[in-house]
Design goal:
Strand order of the largest sheet of chain A: 2-1-3
Shape of chain B: globular
CATH class of the largest domain in chain B: Alpha Beta
Strand content of chain A: 5-15%
Largest interface: A-B, 52 and 56 residues
Number of domains of chain A: 3
Distance between the termini of chain B: 68 Å
Helix content of chain A: 55-70%
Oligomer: heterodimer
Structural class of chain A: mainly alpha
Radius of gyration of chain A: 33 Å
CATH class of the largest domain in chain A: Mainly Alpha
Radius of gyration of chain B: 24 Å
Structural class of chain B: alpha/beta
Helix content of chain B: 25-40%
CATH architecture of the largest domain in chain B: 3-Layer(aba) Sandwich
Distance between the termini of chain A: 43 Å
Strand content of chain B: 15-25%
Order of helices and strands of chain A: HHHEHHHHHEHHEHHHHHHHHEHH
Chain lengths: 443, 344
Amino acid sequence: MTEMAIGGPLEGEKRAASGIHTSEAAKLRLKSRYSAERRFKLYGIAAIVFALAALATLLFTILGNGVTAFQQTFVRIPISFEAEAIDTSGKRDIDELRRGDYAALIRSSLSKQFPDVTDRLGQRQLFGMFSAGAPDQLRDMVLAEPGVIGQTRDVWLYASSDVDMLNKGFIDRKTPEQSRRLSDRQISWVDTLASSKAIEKRFNARFFTGGDSREPELVGVWGAVVGSFFTLMVCLSLSLPLGIMAAIYLEEFAPKNRFTEIIEVNINNLAAVPSIVYGLLGLAVFIGFFGFPRSAPMVGGLVLALMSLPVMIIASRASIRAVPPSIREAALGLGASKVQTVLHHVLPLAMPGILTGTIIAMAHALGETAPLLMIGMVAFLVDIPSGPLQAATVLPVQVFMWADSAERGFVEKTSAGIMVLLVFLLAMNALAIFLRKKFERRW
Amino acid sequence: MLFRSALTVVALAAVSLAAPVQAQQARDQIRAAGSSTVFPFTTTVAENFGRAYSGKFKSPIVESIGTGGGFKEFCKGVGTQFTDIANASRAINKSELEDCTKKGVKEITEIKIGFDGIVIAEKKGHGHLSVTREQLWKALAKEVVVDGKVVANPYKTWSDIDASLPKDKIEVYGPPPTSGTRDSFVELVMDVGCKKAVEAIDKGMHKKLCGTMREDGAFIEAGENDNLIVQKIATSNTGALGVFGYSFLDQNADKIEGSKVDGVEPTFDTIASGKYPVARPLFVYVKNAHVGTVPGLKEFIAEFVSEKAYGPNGYLGPKGLVSLPDADRKAVRDQATSLKPMMM
């Protein structure tokens, strides 16, 4: 195109005479330029549409799979808290109440409600409709209120995961009995209970307050949330001060020479190191050499701090560099020392950018699993950790472990776990945007 | 300045968090690590143990790092920074025992907790496959013997191996070499299946011919996630097979079915009675030196070998554990509760 436009001098004159921008050829060229522009815009739109569609599919699948996990099936049965089973001595001794046979309470209530079920298999199947956590519900009730002993109450108990799956429509009633996890009798009992409104889906509070479990109906994310919190706190309290100090020194004080150049290049290199490498480093240094316990959020936080440090230094340096030199010069001109200039003027102005970079790095650290595999944070933990040196696991690891479990009920829990993780990530990103908008300065 | 004080607070927090690090702390939780196959069972026992002794002992921590990794951690030494229990989908081997002894881990109690069957499953309703181990070897080995000569595996469909088998393409999803399931599959299926062919030519070829899986796309290593394999084969219309532990078949019996191996269907009963040929024992190893130091370890073992856990009607049954025969269970329980160490 350009060559045609330049052309020879004679040709150029000829074209000028006929009106170079009005000739037929020019109109065609113009048309093809416009359509090239349109095509380019279309490619861009197509790219965005594709990305949005992928995102929508992802969110839709996760929501579709996981939204049912926020509800759990409960079964209501009348329980008479007989002292013979749980408090034989009659002293209301806490230790004795704790050891009581609460499953027997459920069994005796069931045999009253379904007197025609007398065979052993039937009784086992009947009891199997309740979660392994159901007796614990009763124990917790009694421990919280010992006065309940001797009374009869209607209690909503956790249904087993199989009943839950049936109630949520994930088990096809048409499949032949031997390849279904519930027998025909169990399904008929569920229907009997449903007709008397003794079976219903309720909000699953335990999912947000409980620790991990092997029973899909009893799992909770709280243990992982607390573990993630400790890990991120350790990570933040180490990487933020170190990152800011390193950035200030390199940007404001360091002489420009071969040595600092090497450091700069290597910080950029470190930012690109795969995260699993940091996990191996953590295993060797923090656990092997310093003797930290395995699975501790302390170690996880240290490893993630090393991982996010380069990113934070780079982000902090960029925002310090964005503070105009006139501000430094004015401060120095008024007699402020170098340290005063940096701490009183440069750093506060750079802070919004630094914080944004920090939060993005933290959000990245929150979703990280690979380095934690190496330091033993992929562990099954029922108890909720109470400190950074206690064994803990984190949200993405929890999702990973649920995804790996055989039970059908874990499918929805996995998606629900992802949703919780996404909510945290979105909240952190929103905070980053908020801070940037609130404290941003324009010069 | 606000930012300055905030910075000081953060810096102080960092120092205070990092400072009180004692190299060794007394541990009040049991630690177990090892096989991913045993993981669901140990964790279930851990949870029930935590419930039964709530307020007294904490629930144990269980890590899934593979059988080999579990022994490595276990054999690092005696002391609260090392694990108390190793989960294993095979018995401890000689070099691992030597490693343990060298580091001072001398008294180890071996507990056989039950069996796990390895199933070869396909989508339900797609014709029930019945294969012999020799046919499986022919389908999956990198090199096979044809007319007395070792050649690269020429079989494309099952019917190429034997006319009685279906005309489906050979497509098997299985575990990677790091998995204990793979080791057992090679040992129980491939090593047995190749015997006749290898003995006919040269016994020295055994290792090369039997243990190497084909790499031309007929055997697909699907990673450690068995749920993924289940999903893949349950949606396949071309008769793809999957190799995984029995518990996954048990949980997904409405979507997939296990192929007969040597004429035996993989069910709870056939695995328990030893009729189903592709079954292996599962183990838990306990460090005796930690009993008494780590609270609850003895009680945890007692819970594991109690009838309500590993018995035929115990709570590990629904998780896929195939329990030991009655007489063996009693012997194992006596041995475990008295912490009788293995012969070294």
